[in-house]
UniProtKB/TrEMBL annotation:
Protein name as annotated: DUF2382 domain-containing protein
Organism: uncultured Thermomicrobiales bacterium
Domain DUF2382: 77-128
Annotated InterPro entries: DUF2171, DUF2382
Amino acid sequence: MDTIADIQRGMPVYGADGQLLGVVEAVDDDGLRVAGRQIPRSAIARVDDGAIHLHIAGAALQARADTTAPPTTAQSGASGDQIIIPLAEERPVVEQRETDLGEIIILKRIIEEERTVPVTVRREVLEVVRRDANGNEVVEELRETNA
């Protein structure tokens, strides 16, 4: 026996925590009736070894049964009470906020120093060389320019 169609009266029903909830009292299209409570087919996890195992823990079913008011006509099924399992949804909230992480100070300073730096200086000198007929040379500087 390992399909939901094979469920019969008298089979034991266990919650997800392994707790025995009781035996099947009745089977219909809506689900099972166990210990006076209607369990929907969607709560059945598996059927194996002659037992029915649910997705829901037995303690959760018992706590829900203890806090639930008697069923109204909206909660009543054709065969009696229904188990109503509330769904919860969690959503993270992401937000931005300003946080003081410190500060940065930027200062500009001008520092003057005297340094002796070796520099190559180039100068141009114009020379006029005059030669007479005897081969004598006379050198004359005309002017000096800086480059």
